[in-house]
């Protein structure tokens, strides 16, 4: 599979990127090379190989959940740009 300059322009538009013509040509070539390399994986015989998400076994390493001293609400609010009724006041994100 090869990537065309038109494909690069489409992705750049979605990402709101402005690319020069030289950059578009260079990226089309580089992305095509990457996809050609990844396509080589299709040549491998994977019959009988178990799917894995990691090559090495992964264990959940977590510390014990224990109560420890932390900042009081008053001290935490000392750094707040705005505070209201003992809480951080932040700009609304939804109308």
UniProtKB/TrEMBL annotation:
Biological process (GO), any one: translation
Cited Gene3D superfamilies: Glu-tRNAGln amidotransferase C subunit, N-terminal domain
SUPFAM superfamilies: Glu-tRNAGln amidotransferase C subunit (SSF141000)
Entry's EC annotation: 6.3.5.-
Top-level enzyme category: ligase
Transmembrane feature ranges: none
Alphabetized GO MF terms: ATP binding; glutaminyl-tRNA synthase (glutamine-hydrolyzing) activity; transferase activity
Keywords: ATP-binding, Ligase, Nucleotide-binding, Protein biosynthesis, Transferase
Top-level division of the source organism's lineage: Bacteria
Catalysis performed (reactions): L-aspartyl-tRNA(Asn) + L-glutamine + ATP + H2O = L-asparaginyl-tRNA(Asn) + L-glutamate + ADP + phosphate + 2 H(+); L-glutamyl-tRNA(Gln) + L-glutamine + ATP + H2O = L-glutaminyl-tRNA(Gln) + L-glutamate + ADP + phosphate + H(+)
InterPro entries: Asp/Glu-ADT_sf_sub_c (IPR036113), GatC (IPR003837)
General function of this protein: Allows the formation of correctly charged Asn-tRNA(Asn) or Gln-tRNA(Gln) through the transamidation of misacylated Asp-tRNA(Asn) or Glu-tRNA(Gln) in organisms which lack either or both of asparaginyl-tRNA or glutaminyl-tRNA synthetases. The reaction takes place in the presence of glutamine and ATP through an activated phospho-Asp-tRNA(Asn) or phospho-Glu-tRNA(Gln).
Family: Belongs to the GatC family.
Quaternary structure, from the entry: Heterotrimer of A, B and C subunits.
Protein name: Aspartyl/glutamyl-tRNA(Asn/Gln) amidotransferase subunit C
Organism, as annotated: Cohnella lubricantis
Lineage: Bacteria, Bacillati, Bacillota, Bacilli, Bacillales
């Amino acid at each position: 599979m090869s990537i065309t300059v038109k494909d690069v322009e489409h992705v750049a538009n979605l990402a709101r990127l402005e690319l020069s013509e030289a950059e578009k040509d260079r990226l089309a070539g580089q992305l095509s090379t990457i996809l050609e390399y990844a396509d080589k994986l299709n040549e491998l015989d994977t019959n009988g190989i178990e799917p894995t998400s990691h090559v090495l076994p992964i264990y959940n390493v977590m510390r014990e959940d224990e109560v420890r001293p932390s900042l009081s609400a008053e001290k935490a609010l000392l750094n707040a740009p705005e505070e209201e009724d003992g809480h951080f006041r932040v700009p609304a994100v939804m109308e």
